[in-house]
Amino acid sequence: MRTVGVEEELLLVDPESGEPRARSAAVLARAEHDGTGGFVFEKELHDQMLEFNTHPQTDMADLGAEIVRCRREAARNAGEIGCSVAALATSPLPVKPAVGAHRRYQWMAVEYGIATQEQLVLGCHVHVAVESDEEGVAVVDRVRPWLAVLAALSANSPFWQGKDTSYSSYRSRVWQRWPSAGPTELFGSAERYRARVAEMMATGTLLDEAMVYFDARLSRNYPTVELRVADVCLHADTAVLIATLARGLVETAAREWRAGREPAGHSVSVLRLAAWRAARSGLTGELLHPAVMRPAPAETVVRALLEHLGDALADTGDLDRAKEACAELFRRGNGAQVQRGLLERTGSLRDVVLECARHTQGEAARRGVTPEP
């Protein structure tokens, strides 16, 4: 059974005003002092962000428990220096992002200018184990049409600088400002994948290979394919669903490759349109059906995804849970729907942030309360 690991980025906010706070260095110092942060928590591009990485897991219940534990540990360390954490993919309230002092981040600020300043966006990246680079590239080629569906399910960024963007995932639109971000053409082999990365590096536009921001890519450090399209999810169970579907996609793609099935030949231009539609609509309108790239209701497209992954999910014992989780997500709404529902009820983006922070930190769960749309 393939292992799965998750990287999540959390927003540091003031526990009273809900405004983002540039305190990641202090939170990391607190975590390291307690001996809890050395291998779990990391700094990110902006000082208002905190990242954690789970261990590789084969059981999705174990993965979910670790995500909850990491979120609570992040909240505890942040709380000790006067901050809260919120699983929000953008800040609903206006913010002036503070770029970190690391040499890498400062290079990016100089080279990319305002695009770097505005990249206070928070994602969820899923690593799924592969047996070789050849299998990994075969997977990257075959998961392309389905990634927009994961983006729609995870969408959790409707607000930007104090305004409703009309998007479900505005984070993904901001992310596309990086010159290497987005969907890829078909590679066909690990050799051609590596040649393309080398060609990109030779342009001098990217600092290093870590800045090859493909929607799906081979990890530089682990024997994994990394799927990078999801917003950080408000609910931990949504993050588990995204990880479950990601593993199903990787396994299904690997089986297709071994069976000699060619990947779908959708152009990058059409894949970009599918990604835009997912960012705009989330689960509240139409998506582009990955098989034919024509509009279809979101529920129809998600059912198609589950059917596509049926054998792989059944073999890991995840099929019924994935179906139930998708049904619950349509009932409850993804993070974007929940945030808009909170704003409608409270009339305050501050209250949206604080309620989402309470939920992220586990207070809502302990009281038996979940933010409702």
UniProtKB/TrEMBL annotation:
InterPro entries in alphabetical order: GCL_type2/YbdK_subfam, GCS2, Gln_synth/guanido_kin_cat_dom, YbdK
NCBIfam families in the cross-refs: gshA_cyan_rel, PRK13517.1-1
EC number: 6.3.2.2
Entry's transmembrane regions: none
Ribosomal protein keyword on record: no
Class of this enzyme: ligase
Protein name, per record: Putative glutamate--cysteine ligase 2
Keywords noted in UniProt: ATP-binding, Ligase, Nucleotide-binding
Reaction(s) catalysed (UniProt annotation): L-cysteine + L-glutamate + ATP = gamma-L-glutamyl-L-cysteine + ADP + phosphate + H(+)
Signal peptide: none
UniProt function note: ATP-dependent carboxylate-amine ligase which exhibits weak glutamate--cysteine ligase activity.
GO function terms (MF aspect): ATP binding; glutamate-cysteine ligase activity
Record flagged with keyword Ribosomal protein: no
BP-aspect Gene Ontology terms: modified amino acid biosynthetic process
